[in-house]
Amino acid sequence: MTARLPAGRARYGAIALVVVAAVAAGTWWWRPWADAAPKSLAFTTAPGGTERVGTGEHLYRYKVRAENGLKVTPAQFAAEVDAVLGDTRRGWAAGGQRSFQRVDADPVDFTVYLATPKSTDRICGQYGLDTGGWVNCAAGKQVVINLKRWQELSEFYTGKPELYHALAVNHEVGHIIGEGHVDCPGQGAPAPVMMQQIKGLHGCVPNGTPYAEDGTLITGPPVAASTATPVP
Ligand SMILES: [Zn+2]
């Protein structure tokens, strides 16, 4: 003899089973921040794009996105990022090795985000980076600029937002193009953008661009730990 439930009850039982299964499954597959691109956060992509800048064969296509609800609009933020990456005299586009172009749709080589400290931590945290609510990061194909830093600047750049903004974008994009951390090359020298300047200038003077006016790369002795340990 087999136990049989009335048809109606069996149906409810089946529905309940499906619901329970979905909820249980959710505990392992529903991880919105595990996605490579933080689609679940509310960001808007700056519309339009730029011409290709720089003479370098290696073209980097990038998107710019700003978190929704900020006073800085995606277009305003993009204009600053474009100015930094479009600097063919002293930016990464100088030196004839790279060129950059902003687009507003995939495929891209990297995306530059302007994000609140909380969102910065969430995005960077996906990659195992601890931004502690106050620093920027570059990881995978994402460059995340922390709104707090963007507005409050860092201590050596007080009153010089343009210079700090250039430094922040050049440092993080520097990681994307494969540059590691370096140290100050000597007393009074311009601080390389790949220095973690937030930890101190070590005798160098503030600087926000990878190349000097005369086209030489502003760099310094490599920091060994930067190749092994991901640090923002
Ligand atoms: Zn760094």
TrEMBL record:
For this protein, the parts annotated as crossing the membrane are 12-30
Query: Cross-referenced Pfam families, in alphabetical order?
Result: DUF3152 (PF11350)
InterPro entries hit by this protein:
DUF3152
Residue ranges of the DUF3152 domain? 42-201
List the keywords (alphabetical): Membrane, Transmembrane, Transmembrane helix
What is the name listed in the Swiss-Prot or TrEMBL entry for this protein? DUF3152 domain-containing protein
Q: Which species is this UniProt entry from?
A: Kitasatospora purpeofusca
